[in-house]
Amino acid sequence: PLLIDESTTQTPPYVLKIKAYEYLKNIIFMSAFNFCASGLLIYFFWLFSLEGNNTTIAFTPYIRRSQRARTPWCTRKGRNDGRTIIRSKVDVTDELATIDDVLAVRQYTEASILYRGQPEGINAMKILGSMSSRRLPYNFSETPILSKGSVVSPQWQFLPPDITDGIIEQVKEIEQNGLLSTNPDSVDGLPSLHLNIVSGGKPLFSKDESSHGFQKGIQNLLSLVEPHLYNELLPIVQTLTNSTSVLISDIFLRRYGTEVMGGESRNRISAHYDVFSQATAVIALDDVAAEGSSGLYTTAITRSQGDSSGRTSNHAALRRYFPLKRGDAIVHTWDVLHGVDILPGMDRTSLIVWFTSNDDGDVVSPWLVNHPEITTNDVTQFVLASAIESSVDEDDDNDLSESEPLDDSLFHELDTVDQLPQHPNDFYLQSASMGNAFALTRLGSLCEMESLTTQQIQKAVSILDMLRPSLDLPQPLQQDFKEQDGKVSFKQLTRRFWFEGAMRGSPMAQVALADDVMEEAAETSNEDMELLASVLFGLAAQQEQDGALDSLSRVVEFALSHSCIDSEESFLSSPVVQTAQAATSCLGEDQSHSLLR
């Protein structure tokens, strides 16, 4: 009720109505002001109370990772059809993992992304985490369907114990003197911790009776391994590759472990292909890999009968470790995906031999260009593109920046040169059209650098539409390729390529896309983008991708900084928090609690 002074009783009624309206308006305004002020006080009180409970709130803008960490590569020296689209609801159970690991990884990854924040997506992430934490041995009795000419061949007890002991003793002496190479590795840019013995077919040092120190140590190592490698291993590899022109190109040693030399550590090398080695032999010099749960691994890629493409993935759940005792060797060809991951607290030393038939100085590997499946095999096309790209990177006379055709001398009168494109981007596009995860990821980085020609852009759009129509993308990524000026958006091309790589389990693509999406989410406060970024970082963290776990933690902090969370229950019910918990459930309670504290 309005309280009106008696003096106003003689005032005309319409004046009373006006005064009553103004009075009511003032009351409403003051009530709204008091309500907002009280809300702000409560909010700031809540922030200070969280700080007292050791909860961290991040208000800093999201900062993305460097470009190098998002670019897949191969050594410089050294089917579920790819087009399948899951449109129906995925039955997320762990039964699929017992049928086909490659199919399981693909479908659980898609479920995690497409059903992000929902029970199906959370459950899929937990199953993927469980699969990724396994360390399974390679089963030599179950021969996978390999491409024509592919080889995975064990050579049991190839080096006798006295030779392996002699090598280890000599390496320790060189290591103690700080003489291992710490140059950046061509695969990941980390210190290589390797020791060259033979390079380019020539010994690092020629035999000299007066040599001493480091030079003498290298000569001693060559004397120990030379008869076994040249007289025994070389004929074996020539037989396996069906080529008498195959020769030994490089011999070197690699060390893995914590603080191996001068505080430098290396516990792994990511999965890769050997671009400039037709075949590779890895010889164990210790028993670190004896149980088949540590050391050298390949990935379980079993292709469907009659299908030789689109089944590539370096997902951690697909790793299969070679059970190698001291002196055992594995010979594999260039098209066998492989990497190294040793368990914490272990030290590993291995002897590696590269074989090549490229003895006439050609910079492009002839076994790639003349491969019988060059026009149909996605792995061959990706590795050849990487070989061309890395060759040109080392040659100042060739510049790929303008996507011009390469000089014919790179191919040097090879049989199939007239039938092939001569630019690596075209090979990447061919490989990507068959669903190759590595080519898709690489093209994402090339689009980020705007390195495609107009013709290549048109082909890229066609490939992406074929792999997945835009309506089947997560809503935050459903944008048209063309901008307002009619030009194709490199930003959208970049995201689409990384998305396809991420869906196939590539941790590099997952982190790259998450970085890009989260950067926009930080500017627009788009909660679905934040959730998508948390899923992608979580999937990469499960595979122990460098920096993914830290990035996931920052996404959680950023999401909580602008959310209305007033209790532990609301905190734990946050989709981003639930995603982070699911992603880290396989990493141990310490990691999970540290992430969400």
Explain the overall architecture.
- There is one protein chain.
- By secondary structure, the chain is of the alpha+beta class.
- Helix content is 43%, strand content 12%.
- The protein is built from 17 helices and 13 strands.
- The strands form two sheets. Strands 2, 3, 4, 5, 6, 8, 11 and 13 form an eight-stranded antiparallel beta sheet that branches. It has a five-stranded mixed beta sheet with strand order 1-10-9-12-7, with no helix packed on it.
- The longest helix is centred in the N-terminal third of the chain and has 40 residues.
- It is globular and about 105 Å long.
- The N terminus is likely disordered.
Strand content: 5-15%
- Cα distance spanning the termini: 52 Å
**Share of helix among residues?**
40-55%
Give the SSE string: HHHEEHEEHEEEEEEEEEHHHHHHHHHHHH
Number of helices: 17
List keywords for this structure.
13 strands, disordered N terminus, alpha+beta, 17 helices, globular, 597 residues
Lay out the secondary structure:
Blueprint: H1 13-52, H2 101-114, H3 119-132, E1 136-137, E2 152-155, H4 161-176, E3 194-199, E4 202-203, H5 213-241, E5 247-261, E6 264-266, E7 268-272, E8 279-284, E9 295-299, E10 319-321, E11 329-333, E12 338-341, E13 348-356, H6 366-369, H7 378-393, H8 424-433, H9 437-448, H10 454-467, H11 490-503, H12 507-524, H13 527-542, H14 548-561, H15 568-572, H16 575-584, H17 589-596
Parallel strand pairs: 1-10
Antiparallel strand pairs: 2-11, 3-4, 3-5, 5-6, 5-13, 7-12, 8-11, 8-13, 9-10, 9-12
Helix pairs in contact: 2-3, 3-13, 3-16, 4-5, 7-8, 8-9, 8-10, 9-11, 10-11, 11-12, 12-13, 12-14, 13-14, 13-16, 16-17
